[in-house]
Amino acid sequence: MTYTLIIDEQQTNTVILPATIQASGQTSAAFGSLVAPCRVISSPRLTDRVIVAHDVARCLSIPFAADVHVFLTDEVVHFGPLVGILTAGFTKSSHRPVGSRSFFFAKLLAQEKQVGGFAFLFGAPHIDWENGMTNGYFYTERGWERHTVPLPNVVYNRLPNRRIEKEETFQTMTKRLQTIYGIPIFNECFFNKWDIYRRLAAHPKAQSYLPATSAHVTQHTIEQFLARYREAYIKPADGSLGRGIYHLAKKNNAYECRFRDESGEIQTALFPTSMAAWHHLLAHAPLHRYVIQQAIPLLAVNGRPADFRVHVNKNEHGIWQVSAIAAKIAGKQSITTHMNSGGIVKTLEEIFPDAAEREIMLVRLSDAALTLSRSLDEASETLIGEIGFDLGVDQQGRIWMFEANSKPGRSIFKHPKLKDADERTARLPLAYAVHLSKTAITEPGALWPC
Amino acid sequence: MSKQRTMAVLTEIHETRERAAFGSIHHFCEELAEYARKRGLFFYVSSPPLYLEGVGYQWTGSGWDKGDVPPADVVYNRLHSRKFERSPLFAELLARLAEENGVMFNHRFLHKWEVHCHFERHEYLHPYLPKTALWSGPNTLEAFLDAFPSVFLKPIYGSQGRGIFCLQHSDDGICLRHSTSASMAVYRSLDAFVSALRQQIRTPMIIQQGLELRTLDGRPVDFRLLCHRVRHNDWRVTSAVARVAPPDQFVANLARGGELMAVNDVLRTWYPRADAFQQKQLLKEIALESAAVLASEAEGLYGEFGVDLAIDIHGQPWIIEVNTKPSKQTDMTASYQSVRPSAKAIIDYSLTLMEEKE
User: Fold this and answer.
1) Is B188 exposed, middle or buried (0-12, 13-18, 19+ CB in 10 A)?
2) Is A354 helix (H, G, I), strand (E, B) or coil?
3) A18-55 pLDDT per residue, tens
4) What is the C-alpha separation between A330 and A223, in angstroms, rounded?
5) Interface-testing mutation among A103, A137, A142, A427, with chain B (most B C-beta atoms within 10 A)
6) CA-to-CA distance for A223 and A116, rounded, in angstroms?
7) Which of B86, B177, B244, B325 could tie B166 with a disulfide, CB 3.0–4.6 Å?
8) Residues A101-117: what's their mean pLDDT?
9) B1 pLDDT band (50/70/90 cuts)?
10) Is the pLDDT of residue B211 over 50?
11) Which of B304, B246, B277, B245 is nearest to B107 (CA)?
12) Is A142 left (phi over 0), alpha (psi -120 to 50) or beta?
């Protein structure tokens, strides 16, 4: 439950909690990484409010009054949590701090009211390591506001791309936050296709959802995959948005290769042998960064292949839940179902008008996504709070996983029927951040196993 | 061969013996017709009674010919009478469209209070929404006058800046200005104003926080951004202009004598280049968010909105209002072209709707 935090101008050196919060002998208050000694008293007259004396609030750098959670340890009353959303690409404009992504983050931060606590946007240059403080952008009723606050209880990584994530600045920064301050970071990195495949393939429950995949893209493996599966995809292990994907198929005695050229046009090339395909197209691609994957003949909607984006999030209890499902129908002649290649988004209601059929599909997709996310979570050393899966259903009804994204795109949520899912998927990372903060404060051992 | 794709504009038609006139969108319809032909669309203009009889006007290249027309796949609603939208004839029209599997966009006129309520549900838009309440009596008005330096009273069905009151506390009581008459009056007390007001207003009004707008030579400026829908529920800004209020007026609507200026020119007189760029982007983004929110909240289908924005003296942008039947007078972005971007956008969106149906 949340409490309205009130900053009291008369009182000094005191915090007052409602009697329903069973405080016993706490001697200080904390906000993010800051702790201030103070008197902690209970009042039966307060029910849904906590009162913080103005000097304590100033000492803790609480930026404004808001709805907060209260977590207790033996000595300390924690208000918050303070949740830092890490990103990059800040502008000098106070009204548009992260350029064209400002509204994306405004929508995310606006969910804070439903969840409680303080969420803010920050980047590597905003941290003041000397004082253990950071500058942060808060989104309030008045718009974007900058405040200096303690280091957060939890960091949610929303760095925009792999290149920035790999930069030295961010690597050292995240390491320092974790090791020196014990701040948990979730969705710490973009997924690599081969890494994900390897981890899931080792998991008995997840295995069956995986199309055959190899990180050794050679003339030999191509030959093997085509002989066994007739069709295969070759895709960059670190790619996103369906860029740089080749589709290979063995047709009669020819090899067909489809791909998008530099201008985005789909090209189809036919070769008499796989050797010819290899020499003309693939030998020059940086194949050490590619994987080859068995192509699955997908369920078709109106004659076009369809797959599913299943969005899963950890919720306020730290439990995985399915937060959105949408179908993506491939564009005419397209290689993939990505929207930038003409794909369109449909709801399950739209593509399965029959309620019974829809229910079966919903259950099977949800089961698959939850099994996969739990398996991935178990096999991962870092904290994961959300995943966007691309799942396919083949013509026999079997479910396959093609991709797992740690920073899933939000373009499916432009569909008017996915409005609730849009809000849910924006709210859940903050709800999970509250759970994670609570765990880090009250049972840190659970988070940092020896 | 597949059926010929057909699109109709529905508007009020004034027929005389010599010609038919389509009111404020007459010339715009010619542009729509020209571009529709280029895109291989069968296009006509009709009115609800004519449409129900299967009659419409087709563009010949030099004039409009009246004749029998097929039902439309897509209808662009440019009816300007709100009363008509509540009439049995309109209900009959909707029923006919549904029966013939036709799609209509810009479903109906959205009034100011309705628009505000849709926005209010989206917390991330709050920083850009002036505080607004439905007029229910002097108490709310008093609270607004205490909270803000000036307060506006606007008829919820008003357009083109008509019938707006601006109220301010002054030494002698309440100072009142009116957008249409450009007169000024001073009332001793709020009660005196309210009883005078009760005589004057017959339509529902909203009370809105007055803003300290950034001005040009003391004249308030607002921005009209025309937004059109494209595929995937995406929206695009097709034209943007600044409107500068005439001297001694507090609204910048063209109908009230406002003057058009390029957005860049206005922003560059106010800000250094980098800030002007950020402000322009922000205006566009707010307009697009507004359009997307309204389209998803309001019942029916929308493909076009005119979003009015303004910037206050602190550089904060505000959503002033949204028009469901935006005037085309502001789309001057390409006056050298025969077909304005807004006409192209309407036709392109209609084609998208047809493709989605197929």
Assistant:
1) exposed
2) coil
3) 999 988 899 999 999 999 999 999 999 999 999 999 99
4) 27
5) A103
6) 56
7) B177
8) 94
9) very low
10) yes
11) B304
12) alpha
Count of residues in chain A: 450
Residues 6+ apart with CB under 8 A from B20: B13, B14, B57, B64, B66
SS3 A321: strand
Helix (H, G, I), strand (E, B) or coil at A30: strand
Query: In 10 A of CB B215, how many CB atoms?
Result: 13
Q: B282 to chain A nearest CA, in Å?
A: 7
Residue A435, H or E segment = helix A419-442
* ipTM (interface predicted TM): 0.89
**Which one of A90, A92, A93, A350 would you mutate to disrupt binding with B, by most B Cβ within 10 Å of its Cβ?**
A93
As separate numbers, helices (DSSP H) first and strands (DSSP E) second, chain B gives 10, 20
Establish whether the linkage from the previous residue to A81 is cis, with ω within 30° of 0.
Answer: yes
Tell me if residue A210 falls in helix, strand or coil.
coil
B281 touches chain A (CB under 8 A): yes
**Is B33 in a helix, a strand, or coil?**
helix
Contact B10, B92 (CB under 8 A): no
Residue B48, CB-side half-sphere exposure with 13 Å CA sphere: 20
Average pLDDT over residues A401-425: 90
Give the tens place of pLDDT for each residue, B168-210.
888 888 888 887 776 778 888 888 888 887 777 778 999 999 9
Q: How far is A413 from chain B (nearest CA, A)?
A: 10
| pTM listed for this prediction | 0.90
pLDDT the model gives residue B254: 62
Residue numbers of B between 154 and 213 with CB closer than 8 Å to A: none
* Chain B residues near residue A412 by CB distance under 8 angstroms: none
The residue with tokens 């008829």 is B155
Rounded CA-CA distance B148/B130 in Å is 11
Query: Is the pLDDT reported for residue B311 higher than 90?
Result: yes
Token reading at B225? 């951004």
Residues B253 and B320 sit within 8 Å (Cβ to Cβ): no
* Whole-number pLDDT of residue B3: 76
* Alpha-carbon gap, residue A251 to B187, rounded angstroms: 87
